[in-house]
Design a protein that fits this description.
The complex is a heterodimer. By secondary structure, chain A is of the alpha/beta class. Chain A is 31% helix and 27% strand. Chain A is built from eight helices and twelve strands. In chain A, the strands form three sheets. A six-stranded mixed β-sheet of chain A has the order 6-9-10-3-11-12, sandwiched between helices. In chain A, strands 2-1-4-5 form a four-stranded antiparallel β-sheet, covered by helices on one side. Chain A has a two-stranded antiparallel sheet with strand order 7-8. In chain A, a hairpin with a 2-residue loop joins β7 and β8. In chain A, α5 packs parallel to α6. The relative contact order of chain A is 0.18. The N terminus of chain A is likely disordered. By secondary structure, chain B is mainly alpha-helical. Chain B contains 13 helices and four strands. Chain B is globular and about 85 Å long. Classes of the chains: A alpha/beta, B mainly alpha. The interface between A and B is large, with 42 and 34 residues.
Chain lengths: 254, 360
Amino acid sequence: MVTPHAAGQPVLELTGIGKEFGAIRALHGVDMQVFPGEVVGLMGDNGAGKSTLVKIIAGNFRPSHGEIRFAGNAVHFSRPIDARAVGIEVVYQDLALADNLTAAANVFLGRELKRKVGPFTLLDHKAMAARALELFGELRSETRPHDLVKQMSGGQRQAVAIARTRLSNAKLVMMDEPTAAISVRQVEQVLGLIHRLKEQGVAVMLISHRMPDVFAVCDRVVVMRRGEKRADKAVGDTSPEEVTSLITGAKEAA
Amino acid sequence: MATPLESPITFTNVSKAKWWQSGFFASQTGYVLLALVVLFVVMNFASPYFLTEGNIQNVAKNFSFIAIAALGVTFIIITGGIDLSVGSMMCFSAMITSMVMTGLSTPGMPGASWFVHLAADGKTVVANVPGLILLISVLSGLGVALIVGLVNGFCIAVLGLSPFVTTLGMLSIVRGLCYVVSNGRGSFPGGPDADYFYALTSGNVLGMPAPFIYLVILAIAMGIVLHHSSFGRHVFALGGNEKAAELTGIPVVRVKIEVYVIGALAAGLQGIIISGWLGSAPANMATSYELNVIAAAVIGGANLAGGLGGPLGAIVGCVLLEVIRNGLVLAQVNSYWQQTLVGVIIILAVLVDRVRSRMA
């Protein structure tokens, strides 16, 4: 297995990240690095701090302590849009798609391509459909830009949500439980999509409860428990059994 | 649009939907339009008067009287909201318009000297600049609509109140204001510009009623805005999945306020046009019109859950309601049956759509 650690600078670097909500300490002293083209699995039980960590990186929350460096620069996000501006994209668990719109419309939602017609600025349907088709092609997903999302399978929906992150050439894509609610065949498709992102040098952070998926696509697995990072290992150096005991607390740290 | 030939994807197990299973032909608007055509044919055989020029003109005029407001409400319904205050809004705008028009045309009223003077006979009032009073009074009528729309939008988008409750309250507030400003008596468009006013609201242009022409222009504009501008795209996205709209960076608050303003302005314009046809703006004008307007939009395929709807549907809904009303009159059916039938049609239209989506 190629470990990209040696290959230069991390795209995301967290140092001593902590977060308190009133008296509750949700995160404490989390250090973490993610490199370009690397897939990192983020695992942990409910309440372990995974979502809080993701929300801090995505700009939903500000950390109480610590520093985030992205592509070498210290960054401070106050809104999700700030995180997106530097190249961090999130694929949400419920995918954040509008069912009543087409695949192409969803990919470009909030960043529509436009053209000038006389004094008016209108949507450029043709250019958006062509670019969306290109993106679905890169992801090798059989999705038509003009089909409504309402009529699509779970795998196709994932492709639409992921294509959206490709639009801006994101450097880091965080995926929240992408395989939680879909069929076995579609899980294969989604894992395939993650491989496509990796091939293109994008760093992927996969938040999942499903051990087989994490071991199938990830280069490295990070385990959280009670707001702290308990393990950070290459998948080759660990086993599903060890990760399970780290998640449950049977083993304190590794 | 067809997939380009140099498509990088080959579709092996995802077949393309047949033309009659997608788009307009599979929509509720399509079915209702078909029902409308059938109704026209039936009416033509049932009554020799139905397709006469006079009757068709009459129908066109009558449905135009609710259709412009229906266009505005359709915007709101697409975002998943509702506006119950359109009936009161029609009355309030009409009332303010005719009160301003009368006030500015009465020598002696504050500010009126800028607009009118008395002719040599000491009785006839003459406008200093023809049409200026009309312009200002219509703008003030639309101005109050704008304010009410902003208040609706602010309460719903910023304060997070439910659209139903907010606009139900606004229905009562605005109707109350109508009675307050007029002292319950109603008002009449008057002064030297009143003739222009009547010509523009209830006159004919090229043999077509003027309101019908406004309706066609506004409907085309609305179609372009909904399907070819990013604002329209955001309106649909908001109705489809509000959370997704927010996460993708759509200015949800702004879009929501804008649709309520559009709804109020459309209702205001509609009210002003109706008052021109009535020749007055009584304080009980357009009472319960909100139900007709919303019914028309829903019959035409706008989904109250949000995400679906368009100008054609709103108009088709209005035409259907008006043709049925007209048909019942021509067939000499007791006109009290009208409301009952309208209710049946609302339920039928939604039912047909439900059955179809079950089958698909």
